[in-house]
Amino acid sequence: MQNQKLRIGRIPYANLFPIFYMLERECDCSEYEFIEGVPSALNRMLREGELDVSPSSSIEYLRYRNEYEILENHSISSSGAVGSIILLSKKKVEELNESTIFMSSQSETSVALLEIILKKFYGIKCSLKSAAISHEPSAMSYELAEAYLLIGDDALRTVKSYELKVKSEDDNFQLSTFNSQLIYIYDLGELWHKHTGLPFTFALWIHKKGCCKEKAELLRKFKDDLNKAKKLATENFKIIAPESPLKGILTEDELLSYWKQISYDFGDEHKKGLELFRKYSEESGLL
User: Fold this and answer.
1) Checking phi first, is residue 187 left (phi over 0); if not, alpha (psi -120 to 50) or beta?
2) Torsions phi, psi of 268, nearest 5?
């Protein structure tokens, strides 16, 4: 028997916490089933019909855009630094040619964005290797890589866990790390904006075309609820901050600052940025 509830993907990162907080607090979710997973897992589940609708990596949408429909006016984007997609490097980014970069397997968009930044903006090629990296130094084979890519809450914890020492000439931070080596930290949203002048869309709310025919009314209700949740969330970050799972790791002011630099909308400039990402991804053989 088909599940009559609307199956909704839930990314357990701080970036979407305000939206889901308001969804569950202010909307009737009795006909929704929230299924938690990292972005790459939710991408697969949506593609294979195990989810009805989900916040999903923008690269997932671009790779299968003929199969998906976007829930209009919703995204996770930034016009500049996003705060939770970071590259930590022993060298300046322009000196990383032929280096090994460890990367999280949780986000396909961030990996594609990093490839584009290295190739298109700096003209360099690196070896990208998937690894089980986190904010804990002991969990990383750090000595094997010149740099590593962290996303989501791991990225936020990492930046918080190191004491910021010196600001470098190109406005990227230098950090003293656990092994006393100098590290550069780069925000991928900031690098994209610096070179394109456009926002970068990391995720979109999407569903497969025709997948919700028997749940069309539920999907319409969810769209209304999502609109309501976004409006309430962006108006009430101060109320939401004390409820965040990252409270105690980030201060309430740091959470507010993080959420305010994220755009949850999807307007004309976001669409231009996404189209440029599509173009670069196609040219780089990523689609």
Assistant:
1) beta
2) -60, -45
Q: Which DSSP letter does residue 32 get?
A: E
Q: Model confidence over 202-248: pLDDT tens digits?
A: 999 999 888 778 899 999 999 999 999 999 999 999 999 999 999 88
SS3 assignment, position 163 = coil
- At CA 221, angle to CA 215 and CA 223, rounded to 5? 105
Q: Summarize pLDDT for 39-66 with one digit per residue, the tens.
A: 889 999 999 999 999 999 999 999 999 9
Given the candidates 3.60.40.10, 3.40.50.300, 3.40.50.410, 3.40.190.10, the CATH classification of the domain at 6-79+200-283 is 3.40.190.10
Give the C-alpha separation, 231 to 224, whole Å.
Answer: 11
How is domain 85-196 classified at the architecture level of CATH? 3-Layer(aba) Sandwich (3.40)
Please name which of 72, 157, 114 lies closest in space to residue 284, comparing C-alpha atoms.
114
DSSP state of 130: E
pTM of full prediction above 0.85: yes
DSSP state of 16: G
- Mind listing the pLDDT tens digit for each residue in 142-184? 556 788 898 888 888 888 776 443 333 345 544 444 444 557 8
Q: Is 207 in contact with 53 (CB distance < 8 Å)?
A: yes
Residue 274 CA, distance from chain mean position = 14
